[in-house]
Amino acid sequence: MIARRIRLIAVLAITLVFLLAWVFPIVWSVLNSLKTDSDVLAYPPKLFFTPTLEPYRDVLFGSASILPNLISSFIISIGTTVITMLMAVPAAYALARLRFRGKKFAGFYVLATQMLPPVGIIIPYFLILRNIGWIDTYQGIILIYLSFSLPFAIWLLVSYFEDIPFEMEEAAYLDGASRMKTLWRIIIPQVRGGIAVTVVFVFLNAWNEFLFAVVLSGNTVRPVTVAMFNFISVEQTLWAKLAAVSVLAMLPVVILGIVAQKNIVKGLTVGAVKGGGRR
Amino acid sequence: MSGRGQVRFEDIVKMHGEFAALKGVSFEIEPGEFFALLGPSGSGKSTTLRILAGLDAPSAGRVFIDGQDITAADARDRDIAMVFQSYALYPHMTVYENIAFPLEMARMSKAEIVPAVQEAARKVAIEHLLQRKPGQLSGGQQQRCALARAIVRKARLFLLDEPLSNLDAKLRLETRTELKKLQRSLGVTAVYVTHDQEEAMTLADRMAVFMAGEIQQIGRPADVFARPNSIDVAAFIGSPPMNLIPARYRDGGVEIAGHRLETSLKEAGERDVVVGIRPGAVRIAAGGIPAVVELVEDLGDTAILDLDCQGISIRARVSDGDVPREGTALSITARAADIHLFDATTRRRL
To answer: Is residue B192 domain-resident?
Structure first.
């Protein structure tokens, strides 16, 4: 009994440590975003202070507004996500279901592209985009993002499609459905958990991406991850504003996570129990 | 009986690489018939059903339905309904939507679909479950839902792939009877795959016994039971299975454990044979083969005796009342008409 209680306390303590480690930077950012610059730099750090929305007003509506950058990030992330899903869903279905020449190779190729270090391909990407005049354009950045989001999405979705019994599809054919109708009416509704998970991950990756964005973007198209650096300069770092931008940049991701939470949990546990994926 | 649903298989071969799953299968099914494909697993019965459904293509041979060559036709163009072993219900749709799906695919109007779905659900007694999802149904209810989805369209052919195998023993017996009644009342042609010979015997008008990719015998269940045409069929049909005893045939009789039994075959000469005697045909009577009761399995109304006849094992079914005890010595015999003879080399019936 006592041993059980000790074990429970130990588990709780470890969980708490992990939770704090995860939550601390976020709480710190939120707190800093509500301080004035002098409060941020006060030493020892002020736990009690008069909160202000000044940093938010500045970064949203001030001279260095990041609103255009947020919009850029949205266009890039949504564009990447939509195009990725439009291509990944049929591709994953094909890889999971159809028998065709080179299927094994195609499956391996999809994974292999994930093994390249991003730094290794950034220069070729830059040169390609420059040659076709797509540096600092939405289509340029989205195209490059597709090159890694698409394999990732396909790889993630294939396992969801594979979980659906063949017989389900065959039943639909015998019921008079075409392959497209079967995909649309029978298969996709059953992998919507997987699709939700994939949408979240693809959106997240695109939204948080920095390395490619910093090299391939410019003054016209500058996502918020890059724009954030405007607040860090040689002379000074505007911590409060930087924190405010961080919080703003986090918001869409958090909202998306909350909205898709039910589906994500469902999607992550599919296949855990025999027949669980069919319910 | 509808005049639709006549099936003809002509020399169907199905290869999986080097392996022949079907080695030239031919048979015919008459309209309105309940036809069972019976065989052990891996015998080709399910492959045959899948080829008929259009889910697999044969490597050679042709398939006709109602005189029309449909070998190359798509599954969805064949007008065939099927109940899968796993039921294959669409889990994201309600029972109503599941049953309505084939009608929607046939582009029927809502005004036609609603009564049709209700009618089909009523026939299998699930009209109170229409708003549930398959996950909220019991195994038996899921099975009925699958049946309703198959009968709602009034397809010309009704395929059932081991539809009872996922039900518990009691429900299986009940559903078996209902299935037969349903098929009769609808008058549709039904093709039924099973490895359970009892199911095939009770349900089918005729059956084809599959072994190793070939049809061994086609006939009415009672005929196949009474006159199995090979050792393999004899061993497969009947529970407990037929006693098969290697013996020597000589001038109308066979010798088992030093004792002669008269057979109905009246042929002069000698040959090696396999003698088949159904457990139910073994009689306890004086002056027969001496045997000792090794084990008694009491089934209530009957009992199965494991007998040792000087090293040869024979099983006998006796009705209750006169069940001998284990260890009892007795003597057994069989009527000439109950003795099946098979050639020891060709394994065919003599």
So the answer is: yes
